[in-house]
Structure formats: C-alpha cells, structure tokens
Amino acid sequence: MPTYTINGKRITTDKVLTEAEIDEIAAELGTPSPTAQAAPAIGSSSANLIPTGGAVAPAVQQQAPSGFKQGLLDPFRGGAQLIAKGLGAAGIDYFKNEAQRMDESLRAQEQQYQQQRAAAGQEGFDVPRLIGNIVNPANLLPAGGTTTFGKALSTGMLSGSLQPVLTEDDFASEKAKQVAAGGITGVLGTGAVKAAGSVLNPLTSKAEQTMRDLGVQLTPGQTAGGQFKDIESFAASVPLVGSYISEAKERALYSFNKGVINKALNKVGEKLPEDVIGRDAVQKVNEIVDEKYTKVLSQMNFKLDFPTYSGLLKAAKIPTSTVDRVRVKDELQAIVFDRLPKDEPISGETYKQIESQLRQRAAQLDRGTVSDQDVAAGLRQSLTSLKEGLKKQNPKFTSELRRIDSAYGDIAVMKTAAANTGAENGVFTPRQYKTAVRQSDVTRRKSQYAAGTARGQDVAEAAVSVMEPKQTANLEGRIALSNVGGYTMAANPATALPMALAAPVLYSESGVKLMNALMRQRPEVVRRVGEVLTQRAPKEGSITAAQVMEEYKRQTQAQE
C-alpha cells in the first residue's frame, strides 16, 4: 500500500494520492505542503518526490508489475477461493473464516496490482496477464464432452470457474456468471479459431480434390459450392455477366473431358494434345492406345497351351442351361479354336484380331435376351482366360499389358459417354459420363455400379457433385442472390457497373486460376499452422476466448 512522508510524518493510504490530496493533508497538519514528500512507495504517483532537504529529485518511472506472473497465479488463487467457499458452505467454520480472509486478500492484491500498473503508466487491456492466464498449467485439466461443441463448452466453463471473484457481490451469483460467460465465449472462441484454421488450411472435399487431380479448372462458384454455386448458375443467364460465366463453365467442361481422357492415356505414358477435344479426342486416344498395344504384341508370341485351353473350357460352363453352354462352345470354335493351331504360336496381330472379335461378339449378345446375356458372360470369361494366357507366356510384358488393358476399359466408357444423346460434338457432361459408367457395367443387375465400384464411377460422381447444377439451381440461386442483397446492388449504378466490369476479368482463364489459388492454394507451412489451429480449436480457442472475456470484465471493474 502507498506510504507518504508529509512534513515529517509517515502516512499509509489505500490508494494513490494526487498532488491536491497531499496539499489537503498537509494543510490539516498545520504546515505548508510544497515540500511534502512521499516516500518511494509501490503505486505512488508522487514517488518522484524524494526527501532531499526540500530539493526535488528528477522524476523516477515506477517499475511495472509482472502481468504474466499475475496471470499465472489467477487460476490457482481462484481455485483456492472456490474450494474455501465450497467447504465453508458445507458448514466448516474454519473455512468460512478462511474464505472471508481470502476474499479480502484477493481484493487487496488486485487493487495493489492495478495501482502498480497505473503508477507505471500502464492502462487498458492487460496482454501479459492474459497470456499468463492462457498458458497456465491449470488449463491442462481435462474437460468433458465428446463432440467439438461439448469440449468447447466444458473447457470454457472450467476456465471461467478457476478465475477469482474480485468484487464484494454475492460469490455464488458472480461465480455462476463467470462459468456461464466462460462456456459461451468458449464456444464462440472455438468457432473463431476453427474459422482461422480453415482460412489458413482450406479443406477441399474428396469430390473437389478428384476434379483437381484430373486438372479441371473449376469456376469460383464450383469451387465454393453451396449457395455460391447456385448464384453462379443463376447469374449465367443474367445479361452483361452471364456470357462470361458460361464461357468459364464451358472451359471447365473441356478440361473435365481432357482430364478423363488423359487419365486413361497416363496409364500408357501418353498425353492428349492441347488442341484436341470432342470426337477428335476420343478417336485420338483410341489410336494412341492401339498403337501401343500393336507395338507390344509385335514382340510377343501366343499359342494355345493346356492351361489356356482349360480356361476356355471352364468359361464355356458359365451359362446355367445346356443349350447356352453349347452356344458358347460354338462361338469359341468359330472365333478362337479354328484360328489357333495346337502347340503352334501365332503372331500378335492374329491374337489381337481374335480378342477384338470376342469383345465385339460379347457386346452384341449383351443387348439381346437373357439367354444371349448368359452366352456373352461366357465369352467375356473366355477373353479373360486368353489374356491371362498371353501374360503368362510373355511375363516381361505383363505389367505393360495390364496398363494397356486398363486404358482400353477407360476408353470404352468415354466412347459410350461421347455417343450419348446430348453430347455435342462428342463433348460429354459429367452427368452423361455417369450414365455411360452405368451402361458399361456388364455385371448382373449392375452390381458393380450399385456398390460404387464400377469403372470410372468415382470420377463421374465427383464431377456431377462439383460441376453439375441442381435442377432447382436457378430458383435457389435467385433466392440466395436476393438474400445477400444482389438485386439491390444490381439496381444501383454505383455497384452494377463495377460488377459488370469485374465479370470478364474474374471469369477469364487467368482470373479463374487466380481465384482458385486464392481460395485453395497455401504454402505448406501455412497449411500446417491452419491444421493445428483446426485440431486444437476446442481447447485453445475456448480457453483464449474465456480469458479475454475475463480480462475485459477486470478492466471494466477497474474503471468503475
């Protein structure tokens, strides 16, 4: 507490005295006060007046107290106060007296601390104390809750409960306010920290990441999704800006087509030329893979050995009826056995002709009756047996053959998509590609498609989710645009003109790339920081927010 020496007498006060108050005390003592000196005392604004026989010494700045230390002590003092109050309320007399003594001690310590800050010229938000509160070991105490909301709420409430009550108001009501405020601000703080983490490390959905892996240049609305995607779909029909949005969506569609084609070509180490799209692209990819296959087959030999022959006979037994089994054998005789001399090799070109004929015949029968489809299943199994025989007889080409075979499978799907109704010039939409994926599933009752494992199904469904507008997109986009004040801005020339001028820049090829970079791309170190913030939000976010609220309350009380 501040101590002053005024006219030779030591006076201790419970607050810092002003010069006017010192003069008043000196007058009451019956002597003039100009030479009244205050002994150097913690918290004294007159500490620069040191008894020197009437001479005034140079001003001395009072040393600031340690706010960080005070912040570290707060939860322990608050916890001790809470325990004493609880045991006192349980009827233990000793703790009743101890709680009262502790209340007075805490208020005196807080008053002295605030006076020290004032004497040192510090005022306003106490950042060092806040940091001490946040990094306090007491915050390591486990909180309840299994969900993010529950963890944030319980952590904030616990943090609030450990703060000392520094007013003379009813302890129970004040502590209840602290706990409630801690819980509320804890939830809000968790949300704020998670939001900051999302900005630093923007998470992409699995569907969006699939599109990016394909190299698709999504529009800003497709990237943002939700209402932004609906607004963009509606805005595509609005004069002035609509044409630029439509062009950007068309470029996204072209890049999707190229991405699907290049995914197949990548399996054989090739890439589609930049200026090829639509039917030309489908034809080009087929030519590239055909050339690769022909080149490999030219280095291989194949003969009808016993394992391959046994595999073909097993395939003939796939149909359930005897009649259909005979039909499979007849088909194999005409397509395979008549052209394969026993134990004598054939050229790769001959093998390719046999394989192609088997595939075409199976596809033709697939469009027929149930009986025809059973025969087609037998022929497809025969084709698998031939391929396995070719790989075993030419082991050094096995890996390359598998990649080529997989590429052919992808090509078959995209050919179907390019041939579907509505695919203008062979450019297929995500929805048309998804339809082709289902059509290309030759399993019974489309079982692979039903299980989500059909060839190309992951890409197709991701593309539909990210790129295709909903049937109600225009209506929902109109409503969303109204909710954000879009119509008001469009009706105001001061905002409508900048919007119209911004559209061609924003939806240009370079503009779309820039927007994607701003929305999704971050340096790795920034992403890691964002990831940590997101993971730690329920703990650090709730504690920080609760302590900020508590410091705000302390500063408010100090000013009253």
What would you note in describing this structure?
This protein has helices at residues 19-28, 67-89, 93-119, 127-134, 148-161, 171-200, 206-214, 220-224, 226-235, 242-265, 279-297, 306-315, 322-335, 348-366, 370-393, 398-419, 430-439, 447-451, 457-467, 473-483, 486-491, 493-506, 509-520, 524-559; strands at 3-6, 9-12. With 560 residues, it is mainly α. It has four domains: 1-62, no CATH class; 67-197 and 550-559, no CATH class; 206-286 and 412-520, no CATH class; 301-393, no CATH class.
Explain the layout of strands and helices:
Blueprint: E1 3-6, E2 9-12, H1 19-28, H2 67-89, H3 93-119, H4 127-134, H5 148-161, H6 171-200, H7 206-214, H8 220-224, H9 226-235, H10 242-265, H11 279-297, H12 306-315, H13 322-335, H14 348-366, H15 370-393, H16 398-419, H17 430-439, H18 447-451, H19 457-467, H20 473-483, H21 486-491, H22 493-506, H23 509-520, H24 524-559
Antiparallel strand pairs: 1-2
Summarize, please:
By secondary structure, the chain is mainly alpha-helical. Helices cover 67% and strands 1% of the residues.
What is the general shape?
elongated
Largest beta-sheet characterization: 2 strands, antiparallel
User: How many structural domains can be distinguished in the coordinates?
Assistant: 4
Which stretches of 5+ consecutive residues score pLDDT under 50?
31-60, 483-491
Mean pLDDT: 79
Alpha-beta content class: mainly alpha
How far is the first residue's CA from the last residue's CA? 20 Å
Rg over CA atoms: 40 Å
Number of strands: 2
Discrete helix count:
24
The proportion of residues forming helix, as a percent range, comes to 55-70%
